[in-house]
Amino acid sequence: MATSQELNIEILTPRIGAMIHNLDLSQPLTKDQKHALEEALYKYHVLFFRNQNLTSKQQSDVARLFGDPHVHPVFSHTAECPEVSVLEFGVDVDPDKKPDSDIWHTDVTWSKNPPIIGMLYAKIIPKQGGGDTLWANTVEIYKQELSNEMKEFLGKLTAEHSFAYTFQPLIKPNSAAMAQFMKAKEANPPVTHPVIREHPHTKEKCLYVNRTYTTKINELNEQESNLLLQYLFSLINKKPEFTCRWKWNENDVCLWDERTTQHYATADYWPQHRRMHRCVIMERKDKS
User: Fold this and answer.
1) Is-above-0.90 flag for pTM?
2) Catalytic residue, candidates 15, 45, 107, 211
3) Rounded-to-integer distance, Cα 93 and Cα 117, Å
4) Which residues touch 150 (CB under 8 Å, ≥6 apart)?
5) Where is pLDDT greater, at 166 or 195?
6) Is 107 a residue of the active site?
7) Which of 21, 177, 202, 288 could be stapled to 8 by a disulfide with Cβ–Cβ 3.0 to 4.6 Å?
8) What does the CA dihedral 166, 167, 172, 176 come to, rounded to 10 degrees?
9) How far are the Cα atoms of 92, 151, 252, 271 from residue 127, in angstroms, in the given order?
10) What is the Cα–Cα distance from 86 to 129, expressed in whole angstroms?
11) Quick one: fold of 4-282?
């Protein structure tokens, strides 16, 4: 069976991020290649691939190798594949819709079955720069930034994650989008996850709360919860040593471990045009 050592890997930073050279994702991956990529993902947390050329169907096929692609209840998507969300901003696209991912977050933690892997494909990149994405390693943050006493305390806690918390303020009242949102809200009530999550493969522990979707610590009162969450959120971008930053070229692809990272998409490119195609990959329901 192939290992990550058999991939052409360029390490980007000591703690997070690697580039995979000479691998064409438009071609079917073998079981050995898929296993090697998973091993590399567990080790480096974020993997980048230059010069890819994927249709939406091919991007979905790559995602499906690792799990079940998620269909987002409110995001727009490509015509061919509802599981390939379109993240597109620019004054010529919609002058009233500005970038909204310039906040540290993990995708879709409001799901009972939260994502295992994220995938972005860069379709249109701002001509005059901007629009980089940053990732933070929440395993290292857990290891390095928390005392043993705090780790023990947090290990006993759970947190609520809410779909409505983030999306409701973005929807115009009495619009068609609001009707779609209300249906999605009913189908996705708040869920509970541990504050400290253990990776199922590496057994490493990581911090699993994020500013976008985490609303409260269940075991604490409101004031205690708010204070603790603000402290934990502040750790994500406390040290650049725990992060990597990627300057996109068109046709770049990124795979990242959604369990051990948070990411932040810079909004400095507005009003320029930026279009990304995203797949969020859930653990496969049928593991056979």
Assistant:
1) yes
2) 107
3) 28
4) none
5) 195
6) yes
7) 21
8) -170
9) 14, 44, 15, 11
10) 20
11) Double-stranded beta-helix (3.60.130)
Q: How many other β-carbons are positioned within 10 Å of the β-carbon of residue 96?
A: 6
At residue 288, does pLDDT exceed 70? Answer: no
Q: Which of 229, 228, 227 is nearest to 214 (CA)?
A: 229
Nearest alpha-carbon partner for 104 in 278, 265, 272, 284: 265
Beta-strand relationship, 68-69 and 214-217: unpaired
Q: Report phi then psi at 112, rounded to 5.
A: -60, -30
3-state secondary structure the chain: CCCHHHCEEEECCCCCCEEEECCCCCCCCCHHHHHHHHHHHHHHCEEEECCCCCCHHHHHHHHHHHCEECCCCCCCECCCCCCCEEEEECCCCCCCCCCCCCCCECCCCCCCCCEEEEEEEEEECCCCCCCCEEEEEHHHHHHHHCCHHHHHHHCCCEEEECHHHHHHHHCCCCCHHHHHHHHHHHHCCCEEEECEEECCCCCCEEECCCCCCEEEECCCCHHHHHHHHHHHHHHHCCCHHHEEEECCCCCCEEEEECCCEEEEECCCCCCCCEEEEEEEEECCCCCC
Is residue 5 very low, low, confident or very high in pLDDT (cuts 50, 70, 90)?
low
How far apart are alpha carbons 75 and 166 in whole angstroms? 13
Query: Residue 64 and residue 31: Cα distance in Å, rounded?
Result: 13
> What residues does each domain of the chain span?
4-282
List 15, 197, 263, 274, catalytic entry: 263
- Percentage of the chain beyond pLDDT 70 is 98
CA 55 to chain centre: 21
Locus of tokens 């068109």: 250
Concerning whether 105 is annotated as a catalytic residue, the answer is: yes
Encoding tokens for residue 87? 């993240």
- Per the residue annotation, which of 105, 161, 259, 277 is the catalytic one? 105
